[in-house]
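A protein record in our archive is deliberately plain, so that people and models can read it alike. The tokens are whole numbers drawn from a learned vocabulary of local backbone shapes. For reference, a complete record is included directly beneath this paragraph.
>
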Amino acid sequence: EVQLVESGGGLVQPGGSLRLSCAASGFSFVDYAMSWVRQAPGKGLEWVSTVAYDGGSTFSAESMKGRFTISRDNAKNTLYLQMNSLKPEDTAVYYCNTVLLGAAYWGQGTQVTVSS
């Protein structure tokens, strides 16, 4: 059974940092690209960033470039999102995501709230 479990969210002041983690199990983590997707209150899903299976390539939404960094540790089957210079508009539930044989899998999400 594929499982994705996010952690690391919380309340942070504007300008602060958080590091999200996503522990993966039930599939061959090293073989698949992984992504972070977020959903702000009252809004749809927004793609944040994707990392290739080997960590060699990363892609991020324009509004996150320079602030968010996606990475992975294939030895630990774990995906990360380092978020710096956080803004109130980054407030959202953050999900990790992968697509296996055409099927999308999601974690339960972790809440990030940026507020003073």
